Amino acid sequence: MGRAPCCEKVGLKRGRWTAEEDAILLNYIKANGEGHWRSLPKNAGLLRCGKSCRLRWVNYLRTDLRRGNISTEEENVIIKLHASLGNRWSLIASHLPGRTDNEIKNYWNSHLSRKIDTFRRPSIDEALPMAMNLVKVSPPKRKGRTSRWAMKKNKNLLGPKKNPNKETSANFDMVSSPATQPVERERLSTTKASSGDRETKERESLAIVNVASVPYSVGEGGTTSPLSSNNLSNPLMLSPSGGREDGTILEPLEGIDEELSLSFNDIVDYAPLLDSSGIMDVSIETSGDHEEAAAVGSGLERKSEGGEWFSCVEDDCVNWDWENHVVQGHGHDQTAEERDGQQMLAWLWETDGGEWGSQSFEEVDREKQNAMVAWLLS
DNA sequence: AAGCGTCTCAACCGCAGCGTC
DNA sequence: AGACGCTGCGGTTGAGACGCT
């Protein structure tokens, strides 16, 4: 038997709030304080459910809300925090005074996710022939209106924006495709934990992956989780021992007590997110999506320290050179954007040594992170 | 001007955590 | 211990705006 609904829906108003309702709610909360949402509508004389009142207050009526567009600085913070926290919008919002989780979530889904998404291969169905395919060279023709970003871009080229304060992603050279949103949804949805208490989930999801050591250190094998057909589909399978049956050691991650899978996409997703100590902070959850994982892994090779190529799976179509950081695709003329993206990623992953010329590791990483964010925001 | 597809964002929905009894 | 209620969170939806054809 399911739970009773949070409120009796019959006879309650839904949809957009009117100014009158806003005033009633505002006045009530001013007089009585927030909380007791369940009883609030009745006491205030509103024909709304308590949840709706709470949402309206939290997202719109609260006096400490910051109005206006998300600034570049805020966008920067959102990108960085999302890398660490995943879709924990309320947590991210807590770092941005005056911004609500809903606002950030919407902003992410409509602006930032697509920017980040261009770091991924363009489609799950393509077996990674171009993992770093930053743009679709020949987007499918669509009927009707072009995507909004493109229109804005056009607008930028042709004249001033209607609202010059409005921040847009218009200058980002990418192609929006109908496939993007479902892919993004799928990706986002994986961050939702399925079980366990919150503390455990925090631990599980905030595994720290040392990028420099992940792909290519080869060791004795260690106590390995068997590379079953299932986890074969995860190109990089991390276990507490860090071992793989093929002899590739993925450095053990302290504090991780459960097997975690890290797909190529995960790395690509979070490549921009190296922190100052050369650590990539990612949100990882064991993926049950074999379809995606299989597609991801269907053509991934890695290079060992000795220079040999490892095949993650049988059907290789892409060579990912972890040392030289070059993605080798088949028969594809790169666009300038692709090259830029590759160069950016290559640069990001070059973190092996303790020093980089005269710069320390930390300085380089900080610079990388800032550059990546700047690039994303550009 | 109408038709259409896309985008944005406020609001809704369902679930999970937590406190209370 | 477990049933129950409240609250908060994250994913999803849909109305309206927008602008291209």
From TrEMBL:
Query: Among the record's GO biological process terms, what is one?
Result: pigment biosynthetic process
Q: Where is the composition biased (Basic and acidic residues)?
A: 183-203
Annotated Myb-like domain ranges read 9-61, 62-112
Keyword list (alphabetical) reads: DNA-binding, Nucleus, Repeat, Transcription, Transcription regulation
Xref: SMART domains? SANT
Q: Which residues form a coiled coil?
A: none
Location, primary (coarse class): nucleus
Annotated ranges, domain HTH myb-type: 9-61, 62-116
- Look up keyword RNA-binding and say if it applies: no
Q: Which Pfam families match?
A: Myb_DNA-binding
List the GO terms this entry assigns under cellular component, sorted alphabetically.
nucleus
Q: What is this protein called?
A: Uncharacterized protein
Q: What is the lineage of its organism?
A: Eukaryota, Viridiplantae, Streptophyta, Embryophyta, Tracheophyta
